[in-house]
Hints:
The structure holds two protein chains of two kinds. Chain A is built from eleven helices and nine strands. Chain A is α/β, with parallel strands linked by helices. In chain A, strands 3-4-2-6-1-7-8-9 form an eight-stranded mixed beta sheet, sandwiched between helices. Chain A is globular and about 50 Å long. Chain A starts with a strand and ends with a helix. Chain B has a single domain (5-97), classed as Arc Repressor Mutant, subunit A. Chain B contains six helices and four strands, in the order αααβααβββα. Chain B has helices spanning 5-19, 24-29, 32-44, 49-56, 60-72, 104-117, and strands spanning 47-48, 76-80, 88-92, 96-97. In chain B, α4 (49-56) crosses α5. Residues 120-124 of chain B have low confidence and may be disordered. The chains are: A alpha/beta, B mainly alpha. Chain A binds chain B through residues 102-105, 107-108, 110-117, 120, 124, 145-146, 148-149, 152-153, 177, 180-182, and chain B through 18, 21, 23-25, 27-28, 35-36, 39-40, 42-43, 45, 92-100, 102, 107, 110-111, 114-115, 117-118, 121, 123-124. Bound molecules: adenosine-5'-triphosphate (ATP) and magnesium ion (MG). Adenosine-5'-triphosphate (ATP) binds at residues 9, 12-18, 40, 43, 141, 191-192, 218, 220-221, 224-225, 228-229 of chain A.
Amino acid sequence: MSKIISVHSYRGGTGKSNITANLAATIAQQGKRVGVIDTDIQSPGIHLIFGMDDAQMDRALNDYLWGHCPIEEAAYDVSAVIRTEKEPSLDGAIYLIPSSLKAGEITRVLRDGYDVGLLNNGFRALVQRLNLDYLLIDTHPGLNEETLLSLAISDTLVVIMRPDHQDYQGTAVTIDVARKLDVPRLLVVLNKVLPTSDKDDLRQQVESTYDAPVAAIMPLDEEMIRLGSRGIFCLRHPEHPLSATIRAIAAQVCQEAS
Amino acid sequence: MSGGLFDRLQHELNAREKARGLSMADLLSLPDAERKLMNWLLDRQEASFSELVTQAGESKQRVRAMVDALVMQGFLRKIERGTEEENVGYQVRFARKRGASLPLNIWSALDEKIGKSETGQGES
Lengths: 258, 124
Ligand SMILES: Nc1ncnc2c1ncn2[C@@H]1O[C@H](COP(=O)(O)OP(=O)(O)OP(=O)(O)O)[C@@H](O)[C@H]1O
Ligand SMILES: [Mg+2]
């Protein structure tokens, strides 16, 4: 059974796109077929982390939503990112469905709207036609129609938050909505935590506030800032402690719900 | 944006037709029992009436009333493949996401600006 995983945060800039890309790479390295879809139609960006630029992109989620093509035709095979010279023949694969970067195409979706039923069917079609083990959904912050739909159909929701008062409030809203939508499994990731913070205390505080498990605490990391979304961190720095943390999140995401 | 009265009426009618169906906000504001059933159906994609009864865990009459009301509100779509009950399927009927209601002149101004900056991008 394939699994749909949404990565969300109530506020922007928490690390959703980077964490999504790193989870996708980690899971694909384990031989799984992973889809990544950018539902952040208003402010897309995850393709950059996979090293794809605008010029290479001739189809996007937008084309599917306008009925120009079946959704799998907007999927790019970006598996090359996980094929190293040492291990060229991995079974895993990553397919990326980007959102359009053309200003005209972004405003067109905002202006004209789109068929939400089509987006729902698109998620299922991707899983089936690309034979995916996992579909990871990168979302727009806040709660818009795409985000809510993504939550509603997810098997697991990964909520990212920073140790910040506004994030605390916002996360409460997301978790409340996720429960109303009967999301079977919730995982919280604390990101950009100061390395000097008391992690146990933080974990306990968050777990008791939301009654949901903290999958990991990720420190604010200089190397990550330096990378600046120009690549997939855990592939560049596999030995780095942050990569081990990402692998730990991946393990929990992939763990069968009991 | 020219066009006579008829065009505008037609536009309004189209907009209303598109507005029918379930939005995610509608889903969140349904009563618990209805919401739970719709959440389940979202994952299932389609179910027969008897499957809905089993899932809801309530009496047939109660679920019938619930399902009929959801169909009436335009939140459920009935797929009739035959007349017998087991040949009727139910699916969630989504609303079209409506475009942002910015004044029309803002969109045309944006279009103009974007049209200039995206050379070769004939569309939109
Ligand atoms: N643990 C970390 N340490 C340092 N920098 C980080 C960390 N995690 C993410 N970042 C940086 O934070 C910035 C925002 O990350 P990212 O784009 O992934 O967030 P996002 O939640 O997807 O943002 P948006 O809401 O705009 O989509 C990026 O520059 C990224 O490199
Ligand atoms: Mg992002």
